[in-house]
Every structure is written in structure tokens, then in C-alpha cells.
Amino acid sequence: MKEKIEALKNGALKELNNLSKEADVLNCKAKYLGKKSELNDLLASLKNLTVEEKKVIGPLLNETKKELENAFNNKLTEINNQINYNFDETLPVCSKTGSLHPVTIVAKEVTDIMKRMGFTVVSGPEMETEYYNFEALNVPKNHPARDMQDTYYLDNGLLLRTQTSSNQVHAMQKYGAPLKVCSPGRVFRNEDIDANHENTFFQIEGMVIDENISVSNLVYVMRSLLREIFHQDVKVRLRPGYFPFTEPSFELDCSCLICGGKGCPTCKNSGWLELCPGGMIHPNVLKESNIDTDKYTGFAFGLGLTRLAMMKYKINDIRVLNNGDVRELGQFGIE
Ligand code: DAH
Question: Under DSSP, is residue 125 helix (H, G, I), strand (E, B) or coil?
Fold first, then answer.
């Protein structure tokens, strides 16, 4: 009996020694230590032995069982350790990190600055009614100003908003006056796409309504905003403009940062970029929201966030921003 047990043990250890795969070791372990193993049969047959025999064979069987269990478990640990450490831990896990989109970075930056300047952030729908996008802004049907913004009209009677100005009347009707809000968002125009034009881009609207608000307040806020955005005094110029929802209206241009004012395709060789149109809110727009025009005046402006991102990152083709090519967009990093 003793020899049989010894031979069984040696046979198991020899077989185990030749194995290197986890699955093979587990099979071998089942063969020698499982329910249907020879060792188990021997343990079960202990009861048929004499008391004297039991005293010798019993401990021997238990010891053998323990020894084999240890051998199998050690082998399994050894194999698992090899698996875990069989790679170069110094290799970087991923060579590229993700990054925010340049327009997202700029939109957040400008919104944060405006929040610090006391503006509350409001939002409105991208799918909008003609009323909020045009009529409430003093642009009735057949008004020639509608041609300035080629519009996507939807089958459901709505349109894709062409400007964040659509949020002006929403905000006035919701909060009344006095009011100081900004509203960043995506806008859509049926434009032919080229290096300077996209059918989808981003703006941020600013609007202040209070007593005694004048053009000086508008110019002061726009200049302060640009200084904060560019971390420097940027050269700006104010020109008369035309928008049905402001009177008087202005165009605030800033010196083109892509070419340094020398002239390039982005600024149409003028050295200037239209960046921030605005003006004093037309009384018709205020009246549309039941704001007392004897008491309150206000200004509004619309800053082109996409254009700002192009200037900041010196991107001279607007299509880069919408083509989803991470090789181009990824270079701007997370700020
Ligand atoms: N919504 C105009 C546009 O997209 C820009 C604009 C002009 C916004 C004058 C204003 C404003 O708030 O007062 O072209």
C-alpha cells in the first residue's frame, strides 16, 4: 500500500513538472486530487483496513494529499505570475490623450469671463420658431434682412436658428428687466461651404437691459471682453452697421490675429475681422417683451465663437473645425 501511494505521488509530480499551461495543470489536479481520483478512492477505502494499518496509511494518505495540493497550487501561482508580469510595464498605455474641441475651449473661456462680468447664462432651442428667430426681433416676413441669413426651414414648421439673438426675447419674456444675460450656442445657415464659410457655427449673445444704458456701456463691455479673451489690448474699430433689432447698430472689427493685420484670405485681405456686431436694442424688440421703453434701454451683441477659435489657434480654414479629424483637432490640447 505504502509503495502504491509513493508511486502515485511521484507519478503526479512528474506529470505536473512537464506542464506549463494553467488549464493543463487544473486538469491534472482534478485527475490526482478530484472526487474520482485514485487518492480519493484510497481515502474512502481506509475504513476497510485494520486499526493498525489505519494508523500508518491514514496519515500517509493525508500527507500525500497535502503535498500534492501544495505542488499544484504552487505551480498555478507560478504560471499566473508569469502571465501577469510577462509584459513591459514601462510601455505607455496610450500614446494619445483626448482633447477638447477648440470651439468648446473658447466657448467655455468666453462664458466664464462673461459670468465673472456678471452675466447669467441662458439657453434656447436650436430648432426655433420663426417668431423668436425673426419676427420678435423686428424682422417681419419678407423683410430684406432675412436674405442676410439663408435659413433652413424644417418640415415641422420650425427652422434651425440662424443666430443666438433668438434667445433675446425668450430671456426678456422669462426674466423681464433689468437683465444681464449671455447665451452661447450653435447656429445654422444655408451657406456654401468654403475656407471661410460653414453651415454650422457657434456664437455667444450678450444682452444688458437697465436704466440709462448707452452706447458707451456697449463699447466698454465689448472692449473689456476682448481684452480678457486675448489677454492683451487688441486693436478694434467700430463701424456703423445695420441690424433690424438694434438702433443704432455697429460692427466691431478686430485686427486680424492670423496675419497680424497684414491681410490674408481669412480677413479677405483687409487686415480686419468682423468679430462682434451689436447695438442698442430696438424699442420694438423691448416692447415685444412688454419692457417699459420709457424706463429701460439696453444693448446686445453677438460674438462669433467659431471665428474667435480660428483666431486664437490661427486656423485659416473653418472646415477643419467641423470635419472631425482628430489629428487636426487634437493638436490644440486641453486648456
Ligand atoms: N445675430 C447677428 C448675426 O448673427 C449678430 C448680432 C448683431 C447680434 C447685432 C446682436 C446684435 O445681438 O445686437 O449676424
Answer: coil
